[in-house]
Design brief:
- The protein has 382 residues and is of the alpha/beta class.
- It contains 14 helices and 15 strands.
- Strands 7-8-6-5-4-3-2-1-9 form a nine-stranded mixed β-sheet, sandwiched between helices.
- Helix 3 (104-111) links the parallel strand 3 and strand 4.
- The longest helix has 17 residues, at 214-230.
- It is globular and about 55 Å long.
- The two termini are 34 Å apart.
- The relative contact order is 0.11.
Length: 382
């Protein structure tokens, strides 16, 4: 499977918790769309030498807020992908969108476009949460856009944030129940994290907002897992839940180590051996593309890098970490190290091994990232 990710680096306003790359000035939007189209063309040969490449299977508009683009701009970029790459029949084409951009008319227009999956940034159905996070939409818009979107789209994902200061377990349950009432087949849900240099960090440091509590986030996570599993969702990745046949193909490709090309400022790419990332600066990105230069830095992944990535992504998914694959791909030394490092987590019922696959137990799921870092192989080749 191969995918193309297109980063749209614009937002109407900055959410307090966000540390992704974007600009709130739309001045260079037209210029940026042309530059994205040019980068798509400049990189058209990157999949060609891959014997496994059978066509682009996913196109994903992320950001930023991709729904600030017009439908014509979105369709233009999709047509550029088709013009420059072999695309499979019925690819998954996802648009991340915010509720305030999804009027009834806009949703109807999108339903006639090649977009066949919407990922909607709801975050919460409570007005006070949306204000605290500085979201561009209000709670009424969140409800209205889901009422409209479900009329025209079958494949919809929505985002919810838990562990918000002041959010009780009851409020969190209500957020989940509201999402379920629309029959949505996919939910992505993340704990509110406080990144350095964000407005949220400053608000906490100045005492205007309480620090999120790990215990509350852990409770919310357990409620989320239990409620969604009862409602027929499969917990296929730490933060992602999908009904059967509704897993995100784009994101699953990342977690399974498939190849993808990232287009746009700050977008990442991966070809199985090296990882690349575009410059996270709109002006420098535009200048570089206009000079026919790719603004990309790359690093060749060492064996420890690849092993560590496999541990991190494997433990986060239902596919787990295959001990057989660790031995075949990385060698006996890595397998023995993994077994040794896993012992304490197996003993504490945080990890289990079934059919030669290492996975977190229900008790260990919320702690997955911390467990993974304890299994990383450091400085082996020095």
């Amino acid at each position: 499977m191969s995918g193309i990710y297109i980063h749209i680096p614009f937002c109407k306003q900055a959410c307090h918790y966000c540390d992704f790359h974007f600009s709130t000035s739309m001045k260079k939007k037209d210029e940026m769309v042309l530059a994205l189209a040019k980068e798509i063309s400049m990189r058209k040969n990157e999949f060609e030498n891959d014997p496994e490449f059978s066509g682009v299977e996913t196109i994903y508009f992320g950001g930023g807020t991709p729904s600030v683009l017009t439908n014509d701009e979105i369709n233009f970029l999709i047509s550029e992908v088709y013009k420059n790459y072999n695309v499979v029949e019925n690819p998954e084409i996802t648009l991340e969108a915010n509720p305030d951009d999804l009027s009834a008319e806009r949703i109807f227009e999108l339903s006639k476009s090649p977009i066949n999956r919407l990922s909607i940034g709801i975050q919460s159905f409570y007005e006070e949460d949306l204000k605290m996070m500085n979201r561009a939409n209000n709670a009424t818009e969140a409800i209205k856009c889901l009422q409209e979107a479900t009329k025209y789209f079958d494949n919809i994902s929505l985002d919810l944030i838990y562990g918000i200061p002041g959010m009780s377990d009851e409020m969190w349950k209500q957020n989940i129940e509201t999402a379920l009432s629309f029959g949505i087949p996919h939910i992505s849900s993340y704990a509110l994290t406080v990144e350095p240099k964000t407005a949220l960090r400053k608000l906490i440091d100045t005492g205007k907002i309480a620090e999120p509590q790990d215990e509350a986030a852990s409770n919310h996570f357990m409620i989320l897992v239990e409620t969604l599993q009862k409602n027929g969702f499969i917990h296929y990745e730490l933060s992602n839940f999908g009904k059967e046949n509704y897993f995100s193909k784009n994101n699953s490709a990342y977690w399974l180590g498939k190849k993808y090309i990232g287009i746009g400022p700050s977008a990442h790419s991966y070809d199985g051996e090296k990882r690349g990332w575009n410059i996270a600066n709109n002006s420098l990105y535009l200048k570089s593309i206009q000079n026919n230069e790719l603004p990309i830095e790359t690093e060749i992944l060492t064996i420890p890098d690849r092993y560590n990535e496999y541990i991190m992504t494997g433990l986060r998914t239902i596919w787990g970490v295959s001990l057989e694959r660790v031995e075949n791909e990385f060698g006996l030394e890595y397998l023995n190290y993994l077994k040794k490092q896993s012992q304490k987590f197996l003993k504490d019922d945080l990890l289990s091994i079934e059919n030669n696959i290492l996975k977190p137990t229900p008790k260990g799921k919320f702690l997955t990232d911390g467990i993974a870092s304890d299994l990383f192989y450091l400085n082996l080749e020095e």
